[in-house]
UniProtKB/TrEMBL annotation:
Major localisation: membrane
Reactions accelerated catalytically: L-seryl-[protein] + ATP = O-phospho-L-seryl-[protein] + ADP + H(+); L-threonyl-[protein] + ATP = O-phospho-L-threonyl-[protein] + ADP + H(+)
Topological category with respect to the lipid bilayer: Single-pass membrane protein
GO annotation, cellular component aspect: plasma membrane
Pfam family, one: Pkinase
Keyword Nucleotide-binding attributed: yes
Name used for this protein in its record: non-specific serine/threonine protein kinase
Domain Protein kinase: 75-346
Lineage: Eukaryota, Viridiplantae, Streptophyta, Embryophyta, Tracheophyta
Amino acid sequence: MWFLGFSTNNPRNFLILGAIFLVILLAVALRKFALCLEARGNAEEGEKSKQGNRGLCCSAVIRTYGLEEMKMATRNFRIRIGVGATSFVYLAELGDGRLGAVKRVMEERGGSKKMFLDEVSVLLRISHPNLQLLLLEYVPNRSLFDRMHTYSGQAAGPLMWSNRLNIALDVARALDYLHSEADPPIIHRDVKSSNILLIDNDHAKLADFGLCKLGHDTYFSQTPCIVKGSLGYIDVNYVRTGLVSPKSDVYSFGVLLLELITGLKSMQGSTTLPEWTEEQRKSRDTGELVGLLDPKLKGNANVEQLKVLVDLANSTLIENIEGRPSMRQIVDRISSCIEAQPYPELPV
């Protein structure tokens, strides 16, 4: 009798057949073990990926464009829709019919390839509905500065008091995210009305990360750096010491609050808005506080909410940075202010 080519009449062939079966069994067992390890490895890798994504706040997909593509999309950079500290922003028509905003770093404005790559590196770490990136979407209503301080912006009528509260809350949430949830934390360093893009009168995005700085293990920077920012918004402590921290953004946000309250620009001649309004905003007299209000509102504002915003502005603008609130505390106060029962409007 023959089995697998071996005669069963020879006893030695049984040993050979036994060895063959043993090799087959070992091969099957090893294969199953390998599959088990592979499945476990995939599961661990997936878990690490999830944890990594939580740390980075987003799973970014990078799409790069050639210069010729951008020239075609922007019609050779024809329509300028914004100006950054070191860059220009142009309108682009993307291939799928969407509109985009292309930021072009300009050497003649002090920009460099390194600054651009640093900004990209930061932006790939963050994802938040109130943050605007390099090329994601075109925000047609332009900036808060345009809306409040240009003829075309004011032609649409003044921003109502409730609009201003909602815009302040959106910007506060964006900064809170950068300071508290981004990993590592990010200091924007250029919070100003021209970097606040309006989706509509109620919703805004914080844009332009060209001057941003990554946070450190310690909450406050211990090494002085070159002071950067925009006149009227720069933290006075940062100017004096060269030390930047998240509280530097808090100061700039306080200037923005004053801008929303008063309707005035950050500079009044050679005087900053915090200096210009100091006596009135620190007064305990309600009439003095009401006098800060943008005349274009014609008194259509909420007196208790006005008090909260002025008090917040005062706390953000003190020179002692440790005494300033965090952006999380500011978000909580503005949210509570908006959610509170409405108070009587100010008299016209």
